[in-house]
Amino acid sequence: MQKTDYSKIACTYNNRYKENYLSNIEKLLKQLVFDNGYKIILETGCGTGKWIKSFDDLNLKVFGLDYSLDMLKMFDRGDSKAQMINADACSIPVKDNSIDLIFCVNAIHHFPDKKKFISECKRTLKQNGMITAFGVDPYCDKEWYVYDYFENVYQNDLKRFVPVDSIKEFLNSKDFRETDVSIAEKVFNERIGGEVFNDPFLKKNHSSQLANLSNEDYEKGMQKIKTQIKKDPKTIFKTSVVFYMITGKK
Ligand SMILES: C[S@@+](CC[C@H](N)C(=O)[O-])C[C@H]1O[C@@H](n2cnc3c(N)ncnc32)[C@H](O)[C@@H]1O
Q1: pTM over 0.85, yes/no
Q2: The domain spanning residue 237 has which CATH number?
C-alpha cells in the first residue's frame, strides 16, 4: 500500500477545516461520549488534533496518537490538556483495558494492517468501551470530480480503502458487539468553471489522493481541468462525498 508522506501535507492540512467541514462528526462524537459516560478517549491518526480540540471544554482525559511528528507539531494546543503520542495505530502504547472510546476520522484507510489495529483496540479498550471509525468508502461512492480528472486516483483509492462493510466484518470477527454502519455526514458541492480552483482539495498537498501522485501526473490532471473549462466555461465540478460511521462495543 502506498504510504502518504504527511510531512508534505502537515503545514496546509488545516485549510480543509476553514469551510466548517464535517461538523456533524463532532456532534456524533460528543453524543457518544455523553450517552455512554466515557471519560478516557483516544483518537488514533489524530493528525493536527482538530477533533482532539473539540473535547477541550469537557472534563475528559484525551489522548491523540499519530505516527507523523509533523502533523502532531501542527497541534494548536492552546489550553488543551490532551496528551499527544507519536506512535503507530497498529501498536498502541497503552495498557490493556484502559480506554473508554477509541475513534479515528479519515485515518483507518492509512493504517497498514487494519485487523492488527482492531485487535489493538480490543486489547486497550475497557469492557463496554467502543471503537468508532469515520471515513469514506470509494466502493460505494465515487462522485468526486477529482476521480474523473486525475488518472489512477480512483483505482489507488480502491487499493487503499477497505469497504465499510468489511471493517464491520473485521469488528465482528474480533467479537465486538452491536456493530453498526451508518451515515455520519454528507458533503455536497458544485463548483462551476474556474471556481474549481478555489477548492482547497485541488491543491497538490492537500489530500492524500493528490499528494500521492507524481508532480507530472498531478499537472496532467490540472491541465485536463483547464482544457475542459476552456471548452465549456460552465462545466460543473461536483463533489458528493458520504462519510460513514462504523461502531462496535467490546
Ligand atoms: C487524513 S489524516 C486525518 C487526521 C485527523 N484525524 C483529521 O480528521 O483531521 C490521516 C492521519 O493518519 C495518520 N496515520 C497514518 N497512518 C498511521 C498509522 N499507522 N498510525 C498512526 N497514524 C497514522 C497520518 O499521519 C495522518 O495524520
Answers
A1: yes
A2: 3.40.50.150
